[in-house]
Amino acid sequence: MALDTAAADADAPRSRPDASAAVHPLLSDSTSTSAAGETAEELDARYAPYARRDAYGTMGRGPLPAAQAARLALAAALLLPLRFVAGMLVLLLYYLVCRACTLFVDADEGRPRLAGWRRKAVLRSGCALSRAMLFVFGFYWIRETHRRLPNAEDVNQDQSEESQRPGAIVSNHVSYVDILYHMSASFPSFVAKESVSRLPLVGLISNCLGCIFVQRESKSSDAKGVSGAVTERVREVCQDKNTPMMLLFPEGTTTNGDYLLPFKTGAFLASAPVQPVILKYPYKRFSPAWDSMDGARHVFLLLCQFVNHMEVVRLPVYYPSQQEKEDPKLYANNVRKLIATEGNLILSNLGLAEKRVYHAALNGSSLPGASRHQKDD
Questions:
Q1: What gap in Å lies between CA 25 and CA 148, rounded to an integer?
Q2: Three-class DSSP category at 111
Q3: Is 259 helix (H, G, I), strand (E, B) or coil?
Q4: Percent of the chain with pLDDT over 70
Q5: Were both Cys, which of 75, 171, 332, 365 would link to 263 (CB 3.0–4.6 Å)?
């Protein structure tokens, strides 16, 4: 595991929760009421997948020693503005590349149909500039491992389909930084809010990525509609090599990186092979995991961290058995167990609803929906 070269020797690495309590039960409807009177420690134990255990404490608001506060102030004065300007320049540069490559190109429902040199330019510059953005964020080195499973005979592999292209990358979800890594490695498309397509700079880039846009705040965009769009795109990926692979986070939200939540079946409905990827963020002071902290504070603390670390484990392509093709839930559960085993992650039955309850309780609110600003993919 890589160490923070700028960290003091006295900083002890944070220990991982005991895997003996491997699965956390689903919470009852009375959770929101019972949580209101619990201490922060009791809440952390109950909602373990979302609890922060770094030096900044619950929601990044904990008291800091004088030396660490001075270090943070120095980084905010010197490092933060440099990284912000550099990040904006990288974003602007990629926007200009996308703008140039989409000139005089027909669009299908806002999605430019790029081919030939245009697609290569968008793809290669996108991978390079995404890696540059990670560098700006302090991820100077990324440790990647391509793992061959020692128990490969226990993993369903249909030899007749091994040449079929994976339709989606499925990954555990720890931070918004996950997307930057996957863009730097394979430049996939992903599901995003419809409003993203209208954002300055980012809107054109997301269209070049081939993102699927959904109106999550609208009742008309129910899970079935989103799943249908994802299934159609995954099948398109398998048939057309010019269609970027889908990046899907089956958990549906972020955790603190030690746990793996139940998988939604959307990524597995197409019965296509998937590429499992495991992401981890070793840390000493600030955890890059986006679990229970508001976005602005998280970005601030991440940019003020002198060095950030990431470890990636890429597993072999998972080819579903006939039984898994007929049962997407079984397919999702088997891939989830594989990722948990190979990533040494603890399985948990908690979900997005419990995350909202936890966040609301930390904010002193009894309403599970009181933290709508919290990211909920």
A1: 32
A2: strand
A3: strand
A4: 79
A5: 332
Contacts 24+ apart (CB under 8 A), 341-344: 342/147, 342/149, 342/276, 342/278, 342/313, 342/315, 343/172, 343/260, 343/278, 343/280, 343/313, 344/16, 344/19
Quick one: how many helices (H) and strands (E) in the chain?
11, 11
Note the pLDDT tens digit of each residue in 210-241: 888 877 555 444 445 778 888 888 888 888 77
Tokens 């508001």 appear where?
A: 294
How far apart are the C-alpha atoms of 53 and 18, rounded to whole Å? 14
Alpha-carbon Rg for the chain, nearest whole angstrom, is 21
Q: Phi first, then psi: what are they for 144, rounded to 5°?
A: -110, 135
Length of the chain, in residues? 377
Residue 26 tokens read as: 């689903």
Task: Check: pTM over 0.70? Answer yes or no.
Answer: yes
Which amino acid appears at position 33 of this protein? Answer: T
Distance CA 134, CA 278 (A): 17
Pairing of strands 142-146, 168-171: unpaired
